[in-house]
Amino acid sequence: MSYPLVILLCVGLLHQTARAVIMDKLADNKICGDAECSHVLSMATALDDFIAPDCRFINIKKGQMVYVYSKLVPEGGAGVFWSGSVYSERYVDQMGIIGYFPATVLKETHKFTQDTVKIPTTGMDFYCD
């Protein structure tokens, strides 16, 4: 492989990763259904619209079904945020995208597990691409 091609490839890879940002942590701990936070804790319905203020959050429309994967443990005076993904045939482009949202815009409709695990959050929990 020629040197100019290698340099161009490296610059291209650096350019793609330069956009990623680790944002401020919203909490130091979270509650999950398992140690990897891969099991759904609950299903909820959006009571109101929520517009994501930055890349850590997801947009939610009133009436949408939301899968909740984790619940952040609030610090003193902080808001209560959960993470999850939306489910809706109307918003197929958003399905599978996991982000945060205020717990106050949802009403839990079904809890899948009562057994939860409290684990520390990491920088990757608040990573933005």
From TrEMBL:
Keywords for this protein: SH3 domain, Signal
- Family matches, as PROSITE patterns: SH3 (PS50002)
Q: Where is the signal peptide?
A: 1-20
Give the record's GO biological process terms: cartilage condensation
Q: Say which domain of life the source belongs to.
A: Eukaryota
Domain SH3 span(s) in chain numbering: 39-111
Q: Has the keyword Oxidoreductase been applied to this entry?
A: no
Q: What is this protein called?
A: Otoraplin
Q: Which organism is it from?
A: Seriola lalandi dorsalis
